[in-house]
Amino acid sequence: MKKTLFTIILIVFLTGCVGVIQQEQSTQDNWRTGTQGVVMNFVAGNPPSEVVSTSDVLVYVEYSNKGASDATNLKFHLTGFDDSILTGLKNEGKPAPPSPLQGKTRFNPEGSQEHIIKWESGINMNSLSETDSFKQSFIVTACYGYRTEAYPQICIDPTQFEVIGPSECDYSVRDLGTSQGAPIVVSKVEKKMSTNKIFLEIEFQNKGNGNPYEGGNCLNLGYDNIDRIYVESVGGNDFSCNPRTVRLVNNKGFTICESTGNFKMPSSVSEIQVPIKISYNYRESLPKKEITIVNVN
């Protein structure tokens, strides 16, 4: 009886350990998910909703990287205010340490820790010295470089044009997922084949709250800059894509990729992984924050 009870306890213990290990393994295997990059928020009470004219205005923003790419050249822009009144605030891009801001990894699926960026200014009343109170607004915009990587699996049946009957591939593309830990996602991959070529139609979507862009001042983007992403590579050097610079229209865009001479067509049914890597700059703004300045002079 004691031996039987001990055996039951041992089985329960081992089952629990296996469950923990499997859960940890699942977390490590699924870290490249989500549609966030750099996330930010105004720190509560900074700025407060009301400030007296003899005090300083403080603006604090907390930020972190919750995506699966490092954020490079991260800068914050503070706009919306009258710089003749809040003379200590500058709207040029303020670099945000650390650089680069590391994102999620297999062993850190939560992303970076939170950091704080701060602006501070006294209040110059100027011609408003007779005014009882007035309002000022703050808009915080983050601009940074980011990447998206997807690793879909495709099935290739080189004999499908030679034999009569169904292909031995029971799927075309799989393991793409709905997100890859970045605001720009590879949302769809469709495969087509000829006797010696593979063609992939790849769709991209912007699922974040901002906009990708190419070059230029992120606060003053024109038509030629906004909503553009760059296809770095598909399958390494095995595929050539056109276009490489993709414009998103209504948050969607696509490219066609064709296998090159570097691609070795398998002699039998095979499953291969095709890494898809894209890069872009990304711009996102917080909702406007408004404060009231009360004249106490």
Textual characterization of the structure:
With 297 residues, the chain is mainly beta. The chain folds into 2 domains: 38-146 and 285-294, Immunoglobulin-like; 148-283. 9% of the residues lie in helices and 41% in strands. It is built from 1 helix and 19 strands. Strands 2, 4, 5, 7, 12, 13, 15, 18 and 19 form a 9-stranded mixed sheet that branches. A 4-stranded antiparallel sheet has the order 10-11-16-14, with no helix packed on it. A 3-stranded antiparallel sheet has the order 1-3-6, with no helix packed on it. The longest helix has 28 residues, at 2-29. The protein is elongated and about 90 Å long.
Attribute tags:
single chain, 297 residues, mainly beta, Immunoglobulin-like, 2 domains, nine-stranded mixed β-sheet, elongated
SS content category = mainly beta
Q: How would a crystallographer describe the biggest sheet?
A: 9 strands, mixed
How many domains comprise the coordinates?
2
Distance between the termini: 87 Å
Q: What is the strand tally?
A: 19
Poorly predicted parts: 5-15, 17-28
Taken from the alpha-carbon principal axes, the silhouette is: elongated
Question: How are the elements arranged and paired?
Answer:
Layout: H1 2-29, E1 38-42, E2 50-52, E3 57-65, E4 72-79, E5 94-95, E6 115-121, E7 133-150, E8 153-156, E9 173-174, E10 184-193, E11 198-206, E12 211-213, E13 228-234, E14 239-242, E15 245-247, E16 252-259, E17 270-273, E18 276-285, E19 289-294
Parallel strand pairs: 2-19
Antiparallel strand pairs: 1-3, 3-6, 4-5, 4-7, 7-18, 7-19, 8-9, 8-17, 10-11, 11-16, 12-18, 13-15, 13-18, 14-16
